[in-house]
Design a protein that fits this description.
Blueprint (H helix, E strand, L loop, with lengths): L22 E5 L3 H9 L6 E6 L3 E3 L4 H5 L9 E3 H4 L6 E5 L2 E5 L4 E4 L4 E3 L2 E4 L3 E3 L17 H20 L3 H7 L1 E5 L3 H17 L13 E5 L11 H14 L2 E3 L3 E6 L2 E6 L2 E6 L2 E4 L3 E3 L2 H9 L9 E2 L5 E2 L2 E6 L4 E2 L12 H19 L14 E6 L2 E5 L4 E3 L1 H14 L3 H17 L14 H13 L4 H4 L5
Helix pairs in contact: 1-9, 4-5
Length: about 475
Amino acid sequence: MTAVLRKKPAMASIAPGKQSKHHVVIVGGGFGGLYAAKALGKVDIRVTLIDKRNFHLFQPLLYQVATGGLSAGDISSPLRSVLSQQKNVQVLMGEVTGIEPQAQKVVLKSGETVGYDSLIVATGSSHHYFGKDEWSSVAPGMKTIEDALEVRRRILLAFEAAEKEPDPVRRGALLTFFVVGAGPTGVELSGALAELAYETLTEDFRSINPGETKIVLLEGMDRVLPPYPSDLSAAARKSLEKLGVEVRTSTLVTDIDGDTVTLKSGDTEEKVQAFTVLWAAGIKASPMGKAIAAQTGAQLDRIGRIIVEPDLSVPGCPNIFIAGDLAHYAHNSDGPLPGTAATAMQQGSYLADSIKRRLVNQEVSAFHYKDNGSLAVIGRNEAVADLGFAKFSGFPAWIVWIFIHIYYLIEFDNKLLVMLQWGWHYFTSQRGARLITGDDSIPALSALVVEEMTMGEKPKAASEMVEA
């Protein structure tokens, strides 16, 4: 199908004019979409990559932006720059809100449409609060640059507020940080936060001792890093506790109200005061899953992912493909593939190859996921690695983690900048991106200040704090 430029009062089609070349539209500039676009860059077809942002984000390092180790630009790359040498690839900045399978068009939020012959949707995932979406304002997660900067703002503001706080109970609450979820993101965030508090900030304050900071990692399962082998989970927990992180497994968060967090472990329930709660407990698919299901009849799993065919196509729609976190792929495996960067990269590359094969009427085999292993870093010289053929932890795993992450950064200048900053941090423990931007208030603290002004008394949560 070809796309034709039309101008209508309510809706327009974006295209440079009628062309006969096969048109592949890719929605999403994450790992899946970008790898597909790069692989199609020298094929005699037209490719249009659409993303609501103008940059690719290296999400695995967002936690380092959140803890001041890296700047946002260090882990982001402009999509136009990355794809500038792929002359058949056009980049459009826009948000796709739906599709029209019969007309073979995607619909943008602006009302414009883009026609396609083949469609790849790789719009990723967002935070999952398990039915408690109201917690998002007090317990931010990390999926975007804005999320990481908000987390960084709250972390640094907590220390600033503690420096001015005369009440020792409230000061203790300001210096208490809860990280909910002990998967790779939670473990890495907890470790980086511990290094920030116990190393980087030790000489920076006069009224408080950052060494008294309390970092609590909460996990509902019985161990940290549940998908990892049990011995690596144990090694990760030992490394976290060595850093000063309090690890609490088999513990659920049942409520977050201002600065008060309600925890449940078995039949025991307790309320603990903390001004900073960070969310790393779950994900759900992007809204595009529901939009595609509504138009195609595709089935969704419990977190909104599209259950795809062995070739990653949508059932009944052989020219619509799903990649990355939006795809529920359980063929030839015990369950859905992990929502990792490695999975998205492999699926993006596979889809590019399968489209090329279809264009010359070659047989397309089912997608086969190659498990290259899992890595999680805890802190300086501390990481765990499960590479399938070998499992190890400590310094060797840390070295492997560093080189793999440097390798997969998209642009050379990012690789160089991150490598230099990691080297500087390793020898000095300094984090140069400790900037507070935006609003200068802590949500839970602001609410309690208002409450004190209206009630004329100390907040109930502060006076009834129970030590974890």
